[in-house]
Design goal:
This protein is of the alpha/beta class and 292 residues long. Helices cover 43% and strands 13% of the residues. The protein contains 10 helices and 8 strands. Helix 3 runs antiparallel to helix 7 and helix 6 crosses helix 7. The protein is globular and about 55 Å long. The relative contact order is 0.18.
Length: 292
């Protein structure tokens, strides 16, 4: 019996090898190696955030993969628009449609915690973005805010997209804080204006960070809103300098001469984002090659 089993096994092996050699059986497949996980981190900076659109446009044109987007303040707005619909032309069209009044809806009826309610911004996201929740996003997206009650950074990654973006953009002293679950949330730039650490915590292998707070000089400060915005900008710059380390590539569009509430310079801001990204492309492509 043992001799018969051995002979049968031997003949089976010969038969299998013969079939493989003749191409009847497919060769064993190799598992496809996944490339590095790339995160795009978009910092805060009010109207200067239109530069983020130019950055995204170049990355898309050069087929740089984006596996997650992390955004603070205006970075969360632009990031949400693209993560829901990864098409830079559509993003550019939407960006050009954003007006100052879509963001700064001043109110005198309930100005106790700030002159801007933020409701119009939330409505803009609700109407312009097909995805209503984080779970529906085509690219994983994280909106960074600040828990006003504890002083800690808080990252929204599930639930209402519009509400989270509104919270991330709610500049304290200007916008009403957003109340959720019995807590108050304000602009993520208060604690984390360029949340590289969030991208790392979510598993990013390569972090491309976009800072629009390099040059914050503003010679035209004449209102309370100007004072608060400039103060937040100064704080954001310091956070980027001393806290937001750990990125692999830092893109800094030259947008410091544009006012924080100036919505008339969209094209120039986008072009600045494109130019800065083109300069960073060699380093980005080298990193992708090295980590693939």
């Amino acid at each position: 019996m043992k001799i018969k089993k051995t002979a049968f096994s031997f003949l089976a092996c010969i038969f299998f090898v013969a079939l493989w050699g003749c191409g009847t059986l497919p060769p064993p497949t190799k598992e496809k190696k996944e490339g590095p996980k790339v995160a795009l981190v978009l910092g805060g900076g009010a109207a200067r955030g239109f530069a983020h659109v130019g950055v995204i446009r170049v990355l898309e044109q050069e087929k740089i993969p984006i596996h997650m987007i992390v955004g603070t303040s205006v970075g969360s707005l632009i990031g949400a628009l693209y993560a829901a619909d990864p098409n830079s032309l559509n993003l550019e069209w939407l960006a050009f449609s954003i007006e100052k009044e879509d963001i700064f809806d001043y109110t005198v009826l309930s100005a106790k915690m700030g002159p801007v309610s933020g409701e119009r911004l939330e409505k803009f996201v609700q109407t312009k973005v097909k995805a209503k929740t984080f779970e529906q996003m085509k690219i994983p997206f994280y909106a960074v805010t600040t828990d006003l009650n504890t002083g800690n950074t808080w990252v929204f990654e599930k639930g209402s997209l519009a509400k989270a973006v509104r919270a991330s953009c709610s500049i304290p002293g200007i916008f009403h804080p957003v109340e959720l679950g019995g807590r108050l949330y304000v602009d993520g730039g208060v604690t984390n204006n360029l949340p590289v650490d969030v991208a790392r915590a979510k598993g990013a292998d390569i972090v491309i960070a976009v800072s629009i707070s390099k040059n914050i000089q503003n010679p035209q400060i004449s209102t309370l809103v100007d004072v608060i915005l400039q103060s937040i900008a100064i704080m954001g710059r310091e956070l980027v300098l001393y806290k937001s380390r750990g990125y692999d590539v830092l893109i800094e569009p030259n947008v410091g001469d544009v006012g924080l509430t100036d919505f008339t310079q969209k094209k120039r801001l986008m072009e600045a984002g494109m130019q800065a990204t083109k300069q960073a492309l060699p380093k980005i492509k080298k990193l992708l090659e090295e980590k693939s």
